[in-house]
Amino acid sequence: MINGLGVLGWGVGGIEAEAAMLGQPIALLPPVATGVRLTGALRPGVTATDLALVVTCLLRQHNVVGQFVEYFGLGCAKLSRRPLRALQHGPRIRRHHRLLPHGRRNHRLPAHDRPRTLPVRARRTLCPPPGPFPGPEFPDPIYSRTIELDLATVAASIAGPKKPHDHQPVGEIKQRFLDALPAAPDAGGFGVPAGRLNTVTPLPDGSEMRHGSIAIASITSCTNTSNPVLLLAAGLIARKAVARGLAVPPFVKTSPHSGSRVVTAYLANTGLLPALEQLGFGVAAYGCGTCIGNSGPLRDDIAAAIRDQDLVAAAVLSGNRNFEGRVHPQCKANYLCSPPGSRFRPRRTRGH
Questions:
Q1: What's this model's pTM, rounded to 2 decimal places?
Q2: How confident is the model over 249-268, as a mean pLDDT?
Q3: Which of 296, 286, 279, 298 has the alpha carbon at shortest distance from 342?
């Protein structure tokens, strides 16, 4: 995330890190540098996660793997808010880093209660113009290649059902899932026979599961979703849902994980945490969870229904990874989206 503030940094593999700790030299070849020219501005309602998913798909289409990616252009000035600039999606396409240039507004201190470790004047001295401060008066940098992205074309979207770069506009989710059910696995589908497309399995609690039923829903606050704007939006949705008597279907396992105690603090301070808890989205743990399969087992009858009827159950999460079997062995369809979007359409409780 420091790349979003113009600080160069990237991760290496565990073997390389361990070798360096033991004093072994590590050779790092200069990677290819790809530039992404940003123009325009995001439309109202488009989130940082939506942008991350679009960029991930775009870079995958251009086979950007193991490269340095730097963003430039007048559109960078429209991403001056720290949570939006620091969206993190590098693990999705396995590249070294993606760097956003410094902006004058980025020297403002973060919202968290942390001391001023580096005065604003010192930061500006360390990052003088014209390099880190882009503007119309400066020429574009020269890269090995340049990719164009108009921010105005980014729309509300998700990624799935099997890969982080399977970008889907929100309005096309249902039809694309229905098309994927009978399609062959090597074509990105699930290979469900025609006679079993409409399979419905009753559960002991009176609910029913079918292909596409959500078995796991997770609101996480890691990487690109460690964004107060997105998590507060999820809390507002939860509060309205509770006020209208909505509840989570009984076959859905909620799997909330927080990346920091700061998240719990601002949700509690704004009075939004009780509504999330009532819907099952209180904080279960701090750290990685759903993305690495730490949601835990499904309820026995739900697991049996998925196994016996070979259902294509789904998981919806605001995380980084959605490869088949990664979130849960019994969730074949997995979708990445923003925390507000990782909630699903709940049902009304009995009596309402």
A1: 0.79
A2: 88
A3: 279
